[in-house]
């Protein structure tokens, strides 16, 4: 069945460091791919998405490119801030009912 | 802001008691979802609805029931709460978005503690 695998956390970085959070997927058909972010004590917010191969989603300095050849959707940011500290979830939407399949989340802590 | 509210936001209850959580949306979306979030498990789908009185099970539906008598409200009921149902519960709606792919938007969550 469809699945999403994220790198395990926690990830700890210093402010202004480069961030990569890996996400790979297994899916039949042509899934859409998403990154959601959850700040402490809050619900999940859509961060970015991509709906077809080679699409690049971007928002708030974060980017991810839909790579069909490597079945990946890695999240990157060139210079993280303390305010980026959160849990990041990768997800895919596939099938006729477009249910979301979730990764387990990666916790990011950014130190000043 | 997708116009989703959840109530209550926090609830403490005892094992064996019934509990109902409410999700309310203001934008008339057809699809609504209930998830639970637990450490080490990420988000897991409990039930979803694709219209008034139209619901289906998710991957962890045992011990839960849902109802949707109005488009704007989706209720999740724990018929007899157990400690294993201690969790954070999120409601979501599915909304048309730019780029043609419908996207799920989440409510603020309900923290439930079953003693």
Shape of chain A: globular
Low-confidence stretches of chain B: none
User: Could you give the order of the helices and strands of chain A?
Assistant: EEEEEEEEEEEE
Low-confidence stretches of chain A: none
Return Rg of chain B in Å: 14 Å
Strand element count of chain B: 11
Mean pLDDT of chain A: 93
Structural class of chain A, by secondary structure, is mainly beta
Structural category of chain B: mainly beta
Topology pattern of chain B, helix = H, strand = E: EEEEEEEEEEE
First-last Cα distance of chain B: 34 Å
Residue share in β-strands of chain A: over 45%
Tell me which oligomeric state these chains represent.
heterodimer
Share of helix of chain B, binned: under 10%
Task: Report on this structure.
The complex is a heterodimer of chains A (112) and B (115). Chain A contains no helices and twelve strands. Chain A is mainly beta and 112 residues long. Chain A is globular. Chain A starts with a strand and ends with a strand. Helices cover 0% and strands 58% of the residues of chain B. Chain B is built from no helices and eleven strands. Chain B starts with a strand and ends with a strand. At the A-B interface, strand 5, strand 6 and strand 11 of A face strand 5 and strand 10 of B.
Features:
heterodimer; A: 112 residues; mainly beta; 4-stranded antiparallel β-sheet; 12 strands; B: 115 residues; globular
Brief summary of the model shown:
The complex is a heterodimer of chains A (112) and B (115). By secondary structure, chain A is mostly beta strands.
Helix and strand arrangement:
The complex is a heterodimer of chains A (112) and B (115).
Chain A: E1 3-6, E2 11-14, E3 19-21, E4 23-26, E5 32-38, E6 44-50, E7 56-59, E8 62-65, E9 75-77, E10 86-94, E11 99-102, E12 106-111
Parallel strand pairs in A: 2-12
Antiparallel strand pairs in A: 1-4, 3-9, 5-6, 5-10, 7-8, 8-9, 10-11, 10-12
Chain B: E1 4-7, E2 10-13, E3 19-25, E4 32-38, E5 42-51, E6 54-57, E7 64-70, E8 73-78, E9 87-95, E10 103-106, E11 110-114
Parallel strand pairs in B: 2-11
Antiparallel strand pairs in B: 1-3, 3-8, 4-5, 4-9, 5-6, 7-8, 9-10, 9-11
């Amino acid at each position: 069945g469809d699945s999403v695998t994220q790198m395990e956390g926690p990830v700890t970085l210093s402010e202004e460091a480069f961030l990569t959070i890996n996400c790979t997927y297994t899916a039949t058909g042509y899934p859409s791919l998403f990154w959601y972010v959850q700040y402490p004590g809050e619900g999940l917010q859509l961060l970015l998405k991509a709906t077809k191969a080679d699409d690049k989603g971007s928002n708030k300095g974060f980017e991810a490119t839909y790579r069909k050849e490597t079945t990946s959707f890695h999240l990157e940011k060139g210079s993280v801030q303390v305010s980026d500290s959160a849990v990041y979830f990768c997800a895919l939407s596939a099938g006729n009912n477009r249910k979301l399949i979730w990764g387990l989340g990666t916790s990011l802590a950014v130190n000043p | 802001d997708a116009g989703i509210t959840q109530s209550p936001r926090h609830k403490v209850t005892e094992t064996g008691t019934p509990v109902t959580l409410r999700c309310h949306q203001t934008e008339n979306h057809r699809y609504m979802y209930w998830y639970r979030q637990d450490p080490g498990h990420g988000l897991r789908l409990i039930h979803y609805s694709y219209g008034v009185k139209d619901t289906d099970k998710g991957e962890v539906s045992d011990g839960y029931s849902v109802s949707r008598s109005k488009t704007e409200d989706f209720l999740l009921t724990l018929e007899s709460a157990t400690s294993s149902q201690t969790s954070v519960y999120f409601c979501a709606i599915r909304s048309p978005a730019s780029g043609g792919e419908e996207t799920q938007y989440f409510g603020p969550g309900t923290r439930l503690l079953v003693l």
